[in-house]
Amino acid sequence: MYVRRLALQEFRSWAEVDIALEPGRTVFVAPNGYGKTNLLEALWYSSTLSSHRVATDAPLVRSGTPRAVVSTIVVNDGRELAVDIEITPGKANKARLNRSPVRAARQVLGVLRAVLCAPEDLSLVRGEPSERRRYLDDVATLRRPTVAAVRADYDRVVRQRTALLKTAAGQRGRADPGLLESLSVWDTHLAAHGARLLAARLAIVGELRAEVEKAYQLLAPASRPADISYRGSVDISDTNVECLEATLMDALTRRRDAELERGVCLVGPHRDDVELRLGDQPAKGFASQGESWSLALALRLAAYELLRSDGTDPVLLLDDVFAELDTTRRRALADIAASAEQVLATAAVTDDIPVDWDARRVVIGMCEGDGGAASRVEP
């Protein structure tokens, strides 16, 4: 799989850009602030419908404009698919597949399968549980695009149920029977959708474990072995969806009083975490800077190998990661990327590019336009 064309309109710093891409390795070279990361962010958005840098869509649209458009042409086994995504803050995104509108933007998920490695990935090791949950959900969705609908349904249920709990908490223990009856209905929905999401996450963790250990060993051969496991908010003794649903329902029943008192949803996959360990210690709080960065990179490379095992190489996106690595780790990453069908990377200076790495270099410069300075691509 590779991206043959990337075109942007009003995305981040780019008023307009249209780039022809090729299989193999391409490096976008430019000082910080010239918009090279925005190109990879746009590709990641086309793959996942989310940004690796911000939680909302508003910052993706160039200042002073109402919407942005990300367009890609993806080639997979000789077949071309065109995807256009229109991003309008505050509204549902619109998408087209081969120029035809689709009912929901998430229907284009799976066309472009990509793995992005970026400096922000340190949050996978050192950040909040939400970062690790999103990592799992993104990988699960890339493998099985139907997981996107499960995530959307579950998030909707959590929002509705949380609103009811806040209302009940405001009534200071005198919640009316109608509200409690509605809450019981939403309990059923949360258990049903939560069980499906939980099952998808558990399956992915099981498949990632060996790949994470292997990738980390390649990047940091002298370090302790790495491991990944899932830590749920409920007891997970059986990964069958029906059993998980029953477990969630039981937990919701037992914690109902605490939820009504606090006005928050205390049960469900949104309360879970992914535990990362190096040797017999948790990585968070115990791993060094080098170990943390290597582990974060190992998580991404493990996802890459897992997606690759499905029979199609995903596009590998490397956002300024070589600058974060020492010589040994840089060489290891370059070796891992050597067999990828397409690698798109960024670098602030050419010295950050691995020596003897055969790559097409695309320089991003600055030009003066009607609206002031803007970026331009110089093949």
Structure description:
- This protein is 40% helix and 25% strand.
- It is an alpha/beta fold and 379 residues long.
- It has a domain at 1-113 and 315-379: P-loop containing nucleotide triphosphate hydrolases (Rossmann fold, 3-Layer(aba) Sandwich).
- 41% of the residues are buried.
- The mean pLDDT is 90.
Write the layout of secondary structure elements.
Elements: E1 2-11, E2 14-20, E3 24-29, H1 36-48, E4 68-76, E5 79-87, E6 94-97, E7 100-101, E8 114-117, H2 122-126, H3 129-143, H4 147-170, H5 177-219, E9 226-231, H6 241-254, H7 256-262, E10 273-278, E11 281-282, H8 289-308, E12 315-319, H9 327-337, E13 342-347, E14 360-369, E15 372-378
Parallel strand pairs: 3-13, 3-14, 8-12, 12-13
Antiparallel strand pairs: 1-2, 1-4, 4-5, 5-6, 6-7, 9-10, 10-11, 14-15
Helix pairs in contact: 3-5, 4-5, 4-7, 5-6, 5-8
Would you report the number of β strands? 15
Distance between the termini: 22 Å
User: Measured on Cα atoms, how large is the radius of gyration?
Assistant: 22 Å
Percent helix range: 40-55%
CATH class of one domain: Alpha Beta
Number of helices: 9
CATH topology of one domain: Rossmann fold
Shape field: globular
CATH architecture of one domain: 3-Layer(aba) Sandwich
Order of helices and strands: EEEHEEEEEHHHHEHHEEHEHEEE
Described by its quaternary structure, the protein is: single chain
Uncertain segments: none
Mean pLDDT: 90
Q: Would you tell me the structural class of the helices and strands?
A: alpha/beta
Share of residues in strands: 15-25%
Name the strands of the widest sheet in spatial order.
2-1-4-5-6-7
Largest sheet properties: 6 strands, antiparallel
CATH homologous superfamily grouping of one domain: P-loop containing nucleotide triphosphate hydrolases
